[in-house]
Design a protein that fits this description.
With 134 residues, the protein is mainly alpha-helical. It has six helices and two strands. It has a two-stranded parallel sheet with strand order 1-2. It is globular and about 50 Å long.
Amino acid sequence: MLFCSPVRPGSCADITHARQLGLVKLLADGPAVEILVDAGYQGLGAQTGERVITPPHRKFKENAPDWYEEMHERQRKARSSRRIRVERGIAHLKNWRALARYLGRREYISDTVQAVAGLLSPQQTADLASAQQL
């Protein structure tokens, strides 16, 4: 887990939240890392020097040629196989009882999320190191 944002009240688009937190500037000026994101962050790649990789827009919504459908499906599967690590990390965070059944006050949930993420990161690093030794 590289970044875990604070919780904000109300609904907000992912990309808007990232911009308000200054994450876009941090990514643009920071180390050269590749970040795989979902379609909620479309357009962020150009603002971060192509460090954020978003799914490509579909050229054809209806009546697409067969060759395009095949190409799109291959790209989607390749991207999905790379992004599964991110999705599993998020799912693992949500499986913690402290977050799955949070009954505390709303203003303290950010602290709880940060604490669980802090506990989870060393565990994932240890799991990765032991898997590489096998």
